[in-house]
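Q: Predict the assembly, please.
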Amino acid sequence: MGEDLKFIMFSLGNESYGVEVDHVNTIERMVPITRVPKTPSFIKGVINLRGSVLPIIDLRGRFGLEESEYTEQTRIIIVFIKDIEVGLIVDAANDVIDINSGSIESAPEVVGGIRAKYLHGIAKIDQDRVLVLLNLTEVLNKNEIVQLEEFEG
Amino acid sequence: MSSDQYLNMFIDEAKEHLQHLNDNVMKLENTPGNMELVQEIFRSAHTLKGMAATMGFNDLSSLTHEMENVLDLVRNNQLQMDTFIFDALFKSLDHLEMMLTDIFEGGTGKADVEDIVKTLHNIVVGEHVQEDSSKQHQEISNSAYVLDEYQHSVLKKSLESKKVFFIKVLIDEGCLLKVARVYMVTTTLERYGEIVKITPRVEDVEQELNDNELLLYYISDVEEQILHNEIMNISEIYSVQFDRVDLEFIDRQVGNNIQVEDEEFEDKQPEIIQAEDQQIVNKQSEIDQPKIKQIDDKKLEDKQPEDVIKTENKQTGIKQYSAGVKVNTESVSEKQSRKPSMSRTIRVDTDKLDTLMNLFSELLIDRVRLEALSSEINHMDLTDTVEHMSRVSGDIQNIVLNLRMMPIESVFNRFPRMVRDLAKSLDKEVEFIITGADTELDRNVIDEIGDPLVHLIRNALDHGIESPAERLQNNKPEKGTLLLRAYHSGNHVFIEIEEDGRGIDRGKILDIAIKKQIISQEDAQKMSDEQIQQLIFASGFSTADKVSDISGRGVGLDVVKTKINALGGQIQIHSEEGNGTKFSIQLPLTLSIIQAMLVKQGEEKYAIPLSSIVETDILQKKDIKIAHNIEMIEYRDRLIPILFLKNIFDIPGSYDPIDYNIVILQQGDKRVAIVVDEFIGQQEIVLKSLGKYLTNIYAISGATILGDGHVALIVDPNALFK
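A: Predicted assembly structure:
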């Protein structure tokens, strides 16, 4: 048996995803976003989070999924890796959940349209639900943005 | 070892002393006969050595010890300073700096100083064999018995009613803070009587207490045994020996040194004022116990002319350094005038200042918000209160910004030495003049500006100033002049580096630029002198015929320019072939709060730094002309390009008015007009970075938070001129 890890559970479309609590600062409701020009389209812009300026990424856009309208349920999860801090727009943030590290399996090639390199693994919550665990380091990988820009340009 | 807690203090102080040493040795090089400087250097070296020894950095103390030996000979006129000695001293200073850096980075401060110690030692023994350190020590213990007339008369008088002792105190070998023990011994003794003479003097304890031996003349009416017990009660005291002294004994000790002493007293006065680094205890004992030594006539003669020069420098306030020829540079006055304020300062962790700044900037955002709200609500009392708060916070803002200001001196300090060394290694003769070292700049800018300046100065020496032979050939004085100048102007600080060297060779630059494919042959024909001079900032450009280790690796000036732009500054070059080159750097006073013009385009708001704006204007659509396929307008008899903010930033919106609102931006001599939908107004904004995730965004230098809580992006005007 491995150790218990805490994950924030959120949803994109019909899938449930998780990010480790250790990398989450806060969860915010939608606020006005200031667009930053000449950036990839999934970078929605910057917000004022209690006096500091924070970039916001639409997670759907980041994974190349179809973007949807923001609703009452839409949340911004503020995450950080080392000295990079960003907000991730998700359809809804539901719960905090304990997952035993022993029960995490490696992810298949593609889950819900998201490639395995962005994933840390998947974990079964109960009989018919699985949680897809994000690999934040890859999600926030800046080198890839540069490549994306070159590709688009 | 319990000395860890003193380490930071030690490093700070040691650095100060080292800077002091560097400055003074340099001055001495220009005025080798100046004994006052030698004294000061000696004292700094001495204090440094004592500190190092206390902290257990033996290599540091052994090196300073040798330096001191050399200096001691010099100040006693037994050794004449020459180039070799100066080089050795500078080399030792370099070693000391390396060791200090090592200690600072958590190292042990160990270094291989054997060579340099040997060199110094050879200076001492080589020409003056009889002056080796053992003899010096001998002198010290002998001098412990010697009494001057005043001491003699005091003791003589006391003998009538009291007991006079000659006391020998031995301190434990392993004692870490000998000064403290000596202090305890003296205070104990002073409770029961009077100390007439103590050897070594308190400030010399760390150095001269070689045998851990303390010698005192002491008057008391208490029994020997009681005193003995009292002193032995102090920890780390090895032994005490009391000798009763009679009249015959003290009569014998009055030497032939009395005549010298009066001079010493006069002499000491100015020095005591200068000795800011030494502790008060030291100063007192210095007065009590002037060191007895011979002063010859030459020294007194030397003093006269220097005093005159001192006053001259006082008036001009200009520091002058020179590598090659003697220039008088005494700035005692400067130090004295600065002293009162220094004693009232405290050291504050810069992190605390940063936190204060951040907190204040949040307050500023709220202030703007409050101002907006109060004008909406329009309630008398509320408006008054908010206005008052605005005024107070404006005052606080000034103070907070001022707290972060530092004189640029801390950067300039190291240049005289650098110029001297460089000039020497390049065989060039240079007079280096610094003005405006007291100009204040934001600490962040100070931290960053050092490297670019080093680069420009190296360039000036390497490429700019010619060799003495070449200068003579061109009817110039043999010695080149290098000016480093800093001054305030408006909301900016200017730093200029100017030399009277060979200037920029237009043809040579063009050749290289074409060869390195920075420009094409056709471009070259059309370029103005100024444009050509700008070329040296292009990356991969180096005009040095051969690559030296000083400059000319071709990674230079473009990096300098990038760095200065990153600081929100600009660099200009002005050069006349044959007459020299001037680099002029313009820097913002602060990086944290700036004046900006807020503009609106479609639904978006942007802030444009006021420092780049020349003016705002209204323009009719028909005024736009097309030249070279670029949209231009006529502005003050010149054609300047016109850009649309909505195109620069792909801002949606189809609103197309008849009259355009334009902002004219300026960088150097270049101007550009920007069309915006609407001017919102001028405002103080707090700069915020976009964070580590969003870097290198085109034409955006950061963001700010507006009164309504929304984020507005700050336009980087520099990007629009490319």
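Chain A has one domain: 4-152. Residues 4-152 of chain A form a domain with the OB fold (Dihydrolipoamide Acetyltransferase, E2P) fold (CATH 2.40.50.180).
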